[in-house]
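User: Please fill in residues for this 282-position structure.
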């Protein structure tokens, strides 16, 4: 297969199936935690999330906050809260300091539905919450982080087509132990490239050179000086970076593939700097 562009194979059937499963999981919970990659506050959220989630209360987590600038993130949090009408918190799945806030907010968001059930004569029960989001945004890490404090599996509640496992996080909160995965739509190649930067699409689906070039051109718009000084170059191109690093193949040509792989890796590991790659207008 010629990898001259992104080939992301999310056939409509896949999306329909994933959405159906998500809807089934949603019917079991009072609220959802939507996980977004803080480096892509718009691009790593699903366009149709509101259609999918309906009226379900939502806590939005800008995860991987350790990889972005905290002042820039603060601005994004304000904007996203206004736009979505839901609470937005930053989170870092490698650190447990945000844990208490997340648990408290999830419980708070679930309360109206529990109150409604109690009005119908049912006994109070713990809030039921699930984690949703695109691939690789950190859903499993967050579930692990939340469940590490409490390893009590509380067993199965029946879903429509299969049993779901729950974990009791504390007396007020039960968490569905499997994340709801939201697949990406294939048509949006601009977004697909951004998602490739943060490893949210399979590496087999694209050419490193094309994605790394695109990354450099976006970084050049917003963070030119930081990136140039990191690579000790005057111009942000794979060519210049290869020469500056002395990555040369036989014949004296710059080793573009190797450079592309390194640039993507440096970015993903946060080595170049702390960057947010979406703009407010999305
Ligand atoms: N730096 C950083 N890496 C994270 C964070 N959360 C998750 N990761 C990493 O991102 C990758 C994907 O995480 P995972 O939880 O498997 O994502 P999922 O596909 O949404 O379940 C893993 O390599 C995690 O270690 C975070 O807050 N900060
Ligand atoms: Mg996972």
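Assistant: Residues filled in for all 282 positions:
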């Amino acid at each position: 297969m010629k990898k001259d562009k992104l080939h992301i194979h999310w056939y409509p059937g896949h999306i329909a199936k994933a959405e159906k499963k998500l809807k089934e999981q949603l019917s079991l919970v009072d609220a959802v935690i939507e996980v977004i990659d803080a480096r892509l506050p718009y691009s790593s959220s699903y366009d149709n999330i509101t259609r999918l989630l309906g009226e379900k209360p939502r806590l939005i987590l800008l995860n991987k906050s350790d990889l972005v600038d905290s002042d820039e993130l603060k601005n994004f949090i304000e904007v996203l809260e206004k736009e979505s009408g839901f609470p937005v918190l930053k989170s870092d799945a490698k650190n447990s300091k945000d844990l208490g806030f997340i648990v408290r907010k999830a419980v708070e968001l679930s309360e109206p539905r529990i109150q409604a059930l109690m009005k119908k004569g049912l006994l109070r029960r713990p809030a039921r919450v699930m984690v949703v989001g695109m691939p690789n945004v950190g859903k499993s890490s967050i579930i692990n982080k939340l469940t590490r404090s409490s390893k009590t599996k509380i067993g199965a509640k029946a879903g429509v087509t299969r049993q779901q496992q729950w974990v009791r996080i504390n007396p007020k909160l039960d968490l569905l132990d499997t994340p709801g995965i939201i697949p990406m739509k294939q048509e949006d190649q601009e977004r697909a490239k951004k998602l490739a930067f943060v490893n949210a699409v399979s590496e087999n689906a694209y050419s490193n050179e094309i994605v790394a070039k695109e990354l450099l051109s976006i970084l050049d718009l917003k963070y030119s000086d930081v990136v140039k000084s990191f690579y000790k170059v005057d111009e942000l191109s794979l060519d210049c970076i290869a020469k500056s690093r002395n990555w040369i193949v036989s014949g004296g040509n710059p080793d573009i593939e190797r450079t592309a792989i390194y640039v993507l890796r440096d970015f993903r590991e946060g080595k170049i700097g702390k960057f947010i790659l979406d703009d407010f207008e999305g």
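For context: Strands lie at 31-37, 58-63, 88-90, 127-133, 153-158, 163-170, 173-176, 180-181.
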